[in-house]
């Protein structure tokens, strides 16, 4: 767990650096998340980190039932928008403190957690390690959303290795979520930001292999980039479907 928590801490620090000292106008700049400004993105992160904390404390169902988060069960994509709409509009300083507190609480809960313990999340049960990696992925996605809105450079880091691996491991889930049969074994052969090889290979011989830059794969999995606009390439019967459906969040 320590490497993932360390990566999560670094990702939170990166986002905090983007947010420190923002004026009111900057908090309300539109982001590439349709209908959301910077404040909405940060509110969404605070809300979902709070739910992750409740999950780690075995209080997820109670937390959902007693708050606006009850809408999160059943339609995850729509629920995020509803949750933000219900709580948006507060002072930026209070929102910033809320997100900092939620992020800190999340890291604290993860530090001593058993990575193999299964906890409740919006899509069912998953391991603590997987929950931690999904929170890292979401923090990375939205850090980039905020940076792009503020006109700051998007700099890939080796934290993407955790996110790329999550995308690879959850390919079957992505197919099932879309109502399709899971594909045959899939391999990812990726290049990290510094040119290193990140290969994710199944136990069985792969029938489909995706190759290219890890940063592009992660951006596609975040649904921020159309795979057709990247240099990602695939061999095998499920290559196009993998690039269409791959994702790193519920």
Question: Your description of this structure?
Answer:
This protein folds into 2 domains: 2-149, dinb family like domain (Four Helix Bundle (Hemerythrin (Met), subunit A), Up-down Bundle), CATH 1.20.120.450; 160-245, SCP2 sterol-binding domain (Nonspecific Lipid-transfer Protein, Chain A). Helices cover 53% and strands 11% of the residues. The chain has 11 helices and 6 strands. Helix 3 (38-56) packs across helix 5 and helix 8 packs across helix 10. 40% of the residues are buried. The mean pLDDT is 93.
Number of strands: 6
Indicate the percent of residues in helices: 40-55%
Largest sheet: 4 strands, mixed
Q: Secondary-structure element order, as H and E? A: HHHHHHEEHHHEEEHEH
Derived from helix and strand composition plus strand pairing, the structural class reads alpha+beta
Percent in strands: 5-15%
Terminal Cα span: 21 Å
**CATH class division of the largest domain:** Mainly Alpha
CATH topology of the largest domain: Four Helix Bundle (Hemerythrin (Met), subunit A)
Overall pLDDT metric: 93
**What is the count of structural domains?**
2
Q: What global shape is seen?
A: globular
Q: Please state the second-level CATH architecture of the largest domain.
A: Up-down Bundle
What would you give as the CATH superfamily of the largest domain?
dinb family like domain
Strand order of the largest sheet: 4-3-5-6
Number of H/I helices: 11
Radius of gyration, whole Å? 18 Å
- Unreliable residue runs: none
């Amino acid at each position: 767990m320590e490497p993932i928590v360390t990566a999560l801490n670094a990702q939170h620090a990166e986002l905090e650096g983007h947010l420190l000292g923002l004026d009111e106008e900057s908090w309300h700049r539109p982001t590439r998340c349709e209908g959301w400004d910077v404040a909405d993105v940060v509110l969404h992160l605070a809300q979902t980190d709070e739910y992750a904390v409740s999950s780690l404390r075995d209080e997820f169902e109670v937390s959902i039932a007693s708050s606006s988060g009850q809408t999160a069960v059943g339609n995850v994509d729509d629920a995020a928008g509803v949750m933000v709409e219900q709580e948006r509009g507060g002072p930026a300083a209070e929102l910033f403190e809320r997100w900092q507190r939620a992020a800190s609480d999340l890291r604290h809960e993860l530090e001593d957690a058993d990575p193999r313990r299964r906890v409740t999340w919006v899509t069912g049960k998953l391991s603590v390690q997987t929950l931690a990696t999904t929170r890292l992925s979401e923090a990375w996605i939205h850090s980039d959303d905020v940076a792009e809105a503020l006109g700051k450079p998007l700099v890939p880091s080796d934290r993407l290795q955790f996110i790329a691996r999550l995308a690879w491991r959850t390919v079957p889930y992505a197919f099932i979520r879309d109502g399709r049969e899971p594909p045959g074994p899939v391999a990812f052969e990726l290049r990290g930001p510094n040119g290193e090889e990140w290969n994710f290979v199944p136990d069985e011989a792969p029938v489909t292999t995706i190759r290219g830059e890890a940063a592009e794969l992660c951006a596609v999995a975040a649904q921020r980039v159309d795979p057709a606009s990247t240099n990602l390439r695939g061999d095998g019967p499920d290559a196009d479907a993998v690039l269409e459906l791959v994702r790193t969040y519920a």
